[in-house]
Specification:
The protein contains two helices and six strands. By secondary structure, it is α+β, with helices and mostly antiparallel strands. A hairpin with a 2-residue loop joins strand 4 and strand 5. The longest helix has 18 residues. This is DUF2218 domain-containing protein. Pfam families: DUF2218 (PF09981).
């Protein structure tokens, strides 16, 4: 979870930004962005009232750690008025 005040706005910005490199998608009704980074790595971000729920799927722990950093840096860049945001990651 990335705690922020404008989660839907930041997800839309990420969809637009990463959409130049991959086939991102956005569901307006659910405030959900889908980011297929590679064959084994993808993220689903969903807007909640208190922030962005992030489900990150990777092939291994090393890639997961690296992608967490990529996601955090990008969200913080778009949320610069609130950054740095507080992130809470849970392994499943």
């Amino acid at each position: 979870m990335a705690y922020c005040e404008q989660p839907e706005r930041y997800i839309k910005q990420l969809v637009s930004h990463w959409g130049h490199k991959m086939a991102t998608s956005y569901d307006d009704g659910d405030g959900m962005g889908v980011f297929p980074f590679s064959e084994h790595t993808n993220a689903v971000m969903t807007a909640h009232k208190d922030g962005i729920g992030i489900t990150l799927t990777t092939a291994d722990a090393e890639e997961n750690e690296r992608m967490r950093g990529v996601i955090e840096r990008h969200i913080d860049r778009f949320a610069f008025r609130e950054a740095p945001l507080t992130y809470e990651w849970t392994d499943q």
